[in-house]
Write a structure and sequence with these properties.
By secondary structure, the chain is an alpha+beta fold. The chain is built from 3 helices and 5 strands; from the N terminus they run ββββαβαα. The chain has a 5-stranded mixed β-sheet with strand order 4-3-2-1-5.
Length: 148
C-alpha cells in the first residue's frame, strides 16, 4: 500500500477549502483518509497565518515513514521546514508552442503583405494619373463613332 499526503477538497461551489490528509494513493480524492494533518484555505491572503495550518510533528512522521507528498503539499512542507523541495527550473516555460509560432508567422506575413499593399498604392496614383486621363479621352471618341 502506497501512502500519499495530498489535498482533499471541501467547501461549497466556488468557495474551496482543503484538508491536508494522509491517504491511500488509490483512494478517491475526497474519499476516506488515514489522518488529517492540516488545512489549506486558498481564499485567504497569502500572508495570512491561517491560510495553511499544518501539524508539523505528524507531517515529519509521515514523511519519515515514506508517504509521498503531492507537489502542492511539498510546497507547504518546504515553507514549514518539514521537507526540502528541490528547486525546479523550466527554461522553456515562457516559450510558445509550435502552433502558436505558426500563427505568429502567418500573422506577420499578413501584416507584411498589408504594409506592402498600403505602400504600393501610395506610389502608383502619381504614375497612373496620366494613364487615367487617356481612357477618358478615348471614351468620347468611342461615343462619336457610335453616333455616326
Amino acid at each position: 500500500m502506497s501512502v500519499s499526503i495530498r489535498l482533499s477538497r471541501g467547501g461549497a461551489k466556488k468557495r474551496p477549502y482543503y484538508r491536508i490528509v494522509v491517504a491511500n494513493s488509490r483512494a478517491p480524492r475526497d474519499g476516506s483518509f488515514i489522518e488529517k494533518i492540516g488545512t489549506y484555505n486558498p481564499l485567504l491572503a497569502k500572508d495570512d497565518a491561517k491560510r495553511v495550518v499544518l501539524d508539523v510533528e505528524r507531517a515529519k512522521y509521515w514523511v519519515g515513514v515514506g508517504a509521498q507528498p503531492t507537489d502542492r503539499v511539498a510546497r507547504f512542507f518546504d515553507a514549514a521546514g518539514v521537507l526540502e523541495r528541490a528547486a525546479r527550473s523550466n527554461p522553456n516555460k515562457g516559450v510558445p508552442g509550435e502552433k502558436a509560432k505558426e500563427r505568429a508567422e502567418e500573422r506577420a506575413a499578413k501584416q507584411a503583405a498589408a504594409a506592402e499593399a498600403a505602400a504600393v498604392p501610395a506610389e502608383e496614383p502619381a504614375v497612373e494619373e496620366p494613364a487615367a486621363e487617356e481612357p477618358a479621352a478615348e471614351a468620347p471618341a468611342a461615343e462619336e463613332s457610335a453616333e455616326a
